[in-house]
């Protein structure tokens, strides 16, 4: 990782959106987004964590040392994109991003700056993990170049999870699609 985003850099990042685990910030004028890890505010809820692979995950991914190492570095998603998804979809179709350093001051100021842009229920549920030392910088794929008159464009985000088909006898007939589609 080269460079670290500091408090002075926070003014250039604006709220783009968020999911359950990450907050997405857009860089003004650059066409990049920053994916910052969030933490749950409700301590009674189990925090999603993956500090070590389970024995099943080791069987699946153990042949890729970079994935096993990345779990300890909190960059599993990027390693998965690089070492698994790029191999299946082609590197030119997968944006694995670049890890950039972030200071605690940057994270605290960004959280303060975007507070009014976030939905209240998201603010109540989670906050930026200001103990993180890095975030993921990727291209903003919601921006399109050129002037596509008269044509349509569809963007698809593939959120690959495990990718296995279950074969459990406990899957009811109403949910049998689970045996056919991941």
TrEMBL record:
InterPro entries xrefs: Ins_P5_2-kin, IP5_2-K_N_lobe
Top EC category: transferase
Reaction catalysed by this enzyme: 1D-myo-inositol 1,3,4,5,6-pentakisphosphate + ATP = 1D-myo-inositol hexakisphosphate + ADP + H(+)
GO cellular component, one term: nucleus
Keyword Kinase: yes
UniProt keyword terms in alphabetical order: ATP-binding, Kinase, Nucleotide-binding, Transferase
Keyword field contains Kinase: yes
GO biological process, one term: inositol phosphate biosynthetic process
GO MF annotations, alphabetized: ATP binding; inositol-1,3,4,5,6-pentakisphosphate 2-kinase activity
Listed EC numbers: 2.7.1.158
Superkingdom, taxonomy of origin: Eukaryota
Biological function: Phosphorylates Ins(1,3,4,5,6)P5 at position 2 to form Ins(1,2,3,4,5,6)P6 (InsP6 or phytate).
Free-text comment about domains: The EXKPK motif is conserved in inositol-pentakisphosphate 2-kinases of both family 1 and 2.
Protein name: Inositol-pentakisphosphate 2-kinase
Lineage: Eukaryota, Viridiplantae, Streptophyta, Embryophyta, Tracheophyta
């Amino acid at each position: 990782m080269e460079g670290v985003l500091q408090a002075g850099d926070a003014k250039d990042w604006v709220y783009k959106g968020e999911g359950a685990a990450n907050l997405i910030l857009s860089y003004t004028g650059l066409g990049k987004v920053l994916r910052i890890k969030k933490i749950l505010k409700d301590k009674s809820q189990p925090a999603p964590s993956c500090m070590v692979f389970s024995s099943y995950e080791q069987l699946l991914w153990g042949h890729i040392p970079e994935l096993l190492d990345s779990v300890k570095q909190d960059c599993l998603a990027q390693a998965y994109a690089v070492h698994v998804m790029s191999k299946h979809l082609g590197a030119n179709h997968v944006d694995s991003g670049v890890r950039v350093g972030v200071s605690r001051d940057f994270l605290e100021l960004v959280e303060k700056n975007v507070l009014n842009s976030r939905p209240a229920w998201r603010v109540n549920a989670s906050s930026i993990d200001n103990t993180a030392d890095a975030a993921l910088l990727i291209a903003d794929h919601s921006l399109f170049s050129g002037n596509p008159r008269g044509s349509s464009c569809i963007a698809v985000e593939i959120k690959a999870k495990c990718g296995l088909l279950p074969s459990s006898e406990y899957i009811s007939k109403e949910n049998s699609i689970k045996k056919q589609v991941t």
